[in-house]
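Why show two proteins at once? Because comparison is the fastest way to build intuition. When a single record is shown, students tend to memorize it. When two are placed side by side, the eye starts asking what differs. So, the first record is below.
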Amino acid sequence: MKAVAYSIKEFEKELLARANGKVHDLTLIANALSWDTIHYARGKEVVIIAEDDLLEAALLDELKRVGIQKIVTRSLLTDHIDLCHAGNLGIQVANTPYADRTSRGIAEQTIRNLNLWERGKCVGLACCCVSDCTIKNAEDHEHKR
């Protein structure tokens, strides 16, 4: 997948690169996602953000306009994203909910989300989509067996 990661700190670069293993085309940006930096998302499928990146409705509209289909937040909480509006736009959203909250663990969770999406699978516990997802429902059904 083609992705741009915003608000990347210096120490995160190597962690994301190692977790990625040259699978996805990642662009790493130190700046936050904003109207001034949204142009980096052009031609990408995914934006990867931090909890400080505020994704309000108008910014989500523009992300959709430039081709973004998915958002991964490198945070547990998603209150910085208008999830309802993202859902209305058909943009899938995932977070990094697993117990390993180290920088390495978050990098691995982020890439895990990309890997699952690329294979057409639901991201499971990381799914923050507000719409009913047939893939997620199928996966939930499989887990219950």
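Second record. Ask yourself what differs from the first in the token line.
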Amino acid sequence: MNLNSTLFAQLLVFFILAWFTMKFVWPPIAKALDERAAKIADGLSAADKAKSDLALAEKKVVEEMRRARETATQARGVAEKQAAQLIEEARAEAVRIVAAARQAAEEEAGAAMHKAKEGLREEVAALAVAGAERILRKEINAQVHADLLANLKQEL
């Protein structure tokens, strides 16, 4: 065989193989590589978007935590004010109850003392009447009157 014809035949087979590869094999490979590159690019952009969304969400969380703390602080302040007000109202009510109880006790003691005085007055009046009755039943004698008054004093 001739070296030139072999070289020419190999060159012809190489070009046919190159054409076949470019026409039928290379487009699906290029298409697959392009799809893969697009998926990678989409994944990277999604990762960047997720990263920015995460940063935004973290900012929102920090803001919500700040608002929650402020709200809790305000609620605690309102609750403390209400508690202080309730304590003050309870204290005032207790003072009113104690004052009313003291006044009722004083009135009751005054009424009991008045009742006791009235009872004593009635007893003294009864004894005076009884003493006068004894004096009037007996004859008038200074010594007898003095003895009766001494007895009356002892009875009182």
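One difference worth noting in the second protein: The chain has a mean pLDDT of 87.
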